[in-house]
Amino acid sequence: MISSCKFPHILSVTTLLILVAVHSDSSPAAAVPPSSEAYALLGWKSQLPNKSRALLSSWNESSTAGLCSWEGLTCDAWQSVTSLNISHVAINGTLQGLNFLSLPNLTTIVFINCSLSGGIPSTISNLSKLTTFDLGLNSFSGGFPAFLGYITSLQYLSLSDNYFTGTIPGSFTTLTNLTYLNLNANEFSGDLSSAIRLISSLPLQNLLLSSNNFTGSIPSSIGELTKLTLLYLGNNMLSGSIPSDIGNLNSLQQLYLQSNSITGFIPRTIGNLSSLGRLWLLDNHIHGPIPFEIGKLGSLWQLDLSQNSLNGSIPSTVSNLTGLSFLYLYGNQLSGLIPPDVGNMQSLYTFQLLSNELTGPIPPTIGNMTSLESIYLSTNRLSGSIPKEMGKLVKLRELVLADNQLDGSLPVEVNNLTSLTSLQLSNNSFSGNLPSDICKDGVFRN
Ligand SMILES: *[C@@H]1O[C@H](CO)[C@@H](O)[C@H](O)[C@H]1NC(C)=O
Ligand SMILES: *[C@@H]1O[C@H](CO)[C@@H](O)[C@H](O)[C@H]1NC(C)=O
Ligand SMILES: *[C@@H]1O[C@H](CO)[C@@H](O)[C@H](O)[C@H]1NC(C)=O
Ligand SMILES: *[C@@H]1O[C@H](CO)[C@@H](O)[C@H](O)[C@H]1NC(C)=O
Ligand SMILES: *[C@@H]1O[C@H](CO)[C@@H](O)[C@H](O)[C@H]1NC(C)=O
Ligand SMILES: *[C@@H]1O[C@H](CO)[C@@H](O)[C@H](O)[C@H]1NC(C)=O
Ligand SMILES: *[C@@H]1O[C@H](CO)[C@@H](O)[C@H](O)[C@H]1NC(C)=O
Ligand SMILES: *[C@@H]1O[C@H](CO)[C@@H](O)[C@H](O)[C@H]1NC(C)=O
Ligand SMILES: *[C@@H]1O[C@H](CO)[C@@H](O)[C@H](O)[C@H]1NC(C)=O
Ligand SMILES: *[C@@H]1O[C@H](CO)[C@@H](O)[C@H](O)[C@H]1NC(C)=O
Ligand SMILES: *[C@@H]1O[C@H](CO)[C@@H](O)[C@H](O)[C@H]1NC(C)=O
Ligand SMILES: *[C@@H]1O[C@H](CO)[C@@H](O)[C@H](O)[C@H]1NC(C)=O
Q1: Residue 202 CA to ligand 8 centre (angstroms)
Q2: 298 in ligand 10 pocket by Cβ < 6 Å?
């Protein structure tokens, strides 16, 4: 194994630098010498700050096992580098000095959280075998690197958590094997419809565009991306309504549209998303009713529709969502009764309906939701008394019922709630004394 490895033991760093310099100045078509991969990597290392060079100490000429044993590298059977995969090492430099033309067999480049900055060298586009390219969580900047669209072998591309700007380039239509595209947390901008039009024929399974500056509305062509499992469009500047074509995405597991300026109704086709586990529509301007079709989302475990303008009553079909772990409907204009069958949601650990216009009683079945740790029903128009069944919620830590029209006395069963740290009952019409044992564990903060 040692003898088959091509590492150049005798060349000094100075020689290497000259070779690298000559190489990058000469015609790109020039034949690469056998040890060009090690030259390219050591040439790059030599340009990094001293501290970073120390972090890559295995990249050295005296490493007897050769470059295939260097940290972060993987080779093929012919000792040619196929993967450059380094994460959480503060390299603190740029990629400009790395001669990718000398590393033609790379299939994988991963630099996650490496304190890298600057732009992406365009010679990356000559890596015709590259399938995975991940520069997540660095400080790269500059316009959208359109040349990435020429790496037609790409399957996985992440530029997330950097400072890139610009719009998704037209060259992306040719990335016919791309299944994963993560551009989260940059400053990408432009009309979302134009962007989706460019990529709607790609076999994307994950499309992550959250926390950027995309504008315009979600186009109906989103429905062509039928392989999508994750669609993240949260924290942008999107407007318009959710197209009913979203219902075509029947593999979708996570739909994040939060913190935009989306208006209109929740389309009834949402009920077709039978694989959906997380639905986050919070912090938009969505109005109209919650469609009863929501009850068909049998895989749902996170439902957040809070801080919108939803009205009408909560459909009784939500009680079909027995796998829900949280239900956030707060900050809307929902009216009518809390569905009497809510108690079916026995996995729920937090139940937040505060700041709506709900009326009627707290349903006694609430006592069946034995996983509950917090209940926020404050600032509604709920009436009647606290059901004694609440005494079964032994995990309950927060019970917030303030600003309602509740009355009667607190049931003695409340003494059972030994995990309670916060009980907020102000602005109601309760009467009588607090049960004598209510503070017996002395854990209250409120
Ligand atoms: C790199 O790609 C560019 C653009 O496709 C091309 O013009 C150039 O000849 C390529 N260089 C090499 C060494 O293949
Ligand atoms: C970097 O290391 C070289 C010797 O390896 C030394 O001459 C130089 O002063 C160091 N630079 C800094 C900034 O420490
Ligand atoms: C070179 O790398 C080997 C491991 O691959 C390491 O044991 C050795 O200390 C390194 N030498 C220098 C000078 O950093
Ligand atoms: C890349 O792989 C091919 C095919 O295995 C091989 O012929 C070539 O020498 C490799 N390139 C380098 C720079 O090692
Ligand atoms: C990169 O390396 C890490 C840990 O060494 C590994 O978990 C990950 O799967 C690798 N990524 C790729 C794309 O090979
Ligand atoms: C990034 O890497 C540094 C080490 O360079 C580490 O301390 C930090 O926790 C990493 N950050 C993340 C989010 O992984
Ligand atoms: C990164 O480099 C910059 C300047 O090149 C320097 O100011 C900074 O302290 C370095 N950070 C680390 C973690 O080495
Ligand atoms: C796309 O993937 C298929 C199947 O893995 C492969 O045969 C084809 O060569 C790839 N296309 C490109 C442009 O790499
Ligand atoms: C993106 O939006 C933020 C917040 O509105 C703004 O500060 C920033 O300048 C915008 N960036 C671009 C590239 O449009
Ligand atoms: C309740 O859930 C089941 C299984 O997920 C589903 O078949 C049924 O259609 C749902 N009922 C309603 C009223 O949504
Ligand atoms: C739910 O609660 C109601 C009223 O407290 C009770 O009659 C019913 O048996 C409970 N159902 C389950 C499945 O625990
Ligand atoms: C009090 O809690 C226990 C479980 O710790 C439960 O068995 C009992 O039914 C509860 N009592 C009331 C009155 O809810």
Answers
A1: 13
A2: yes
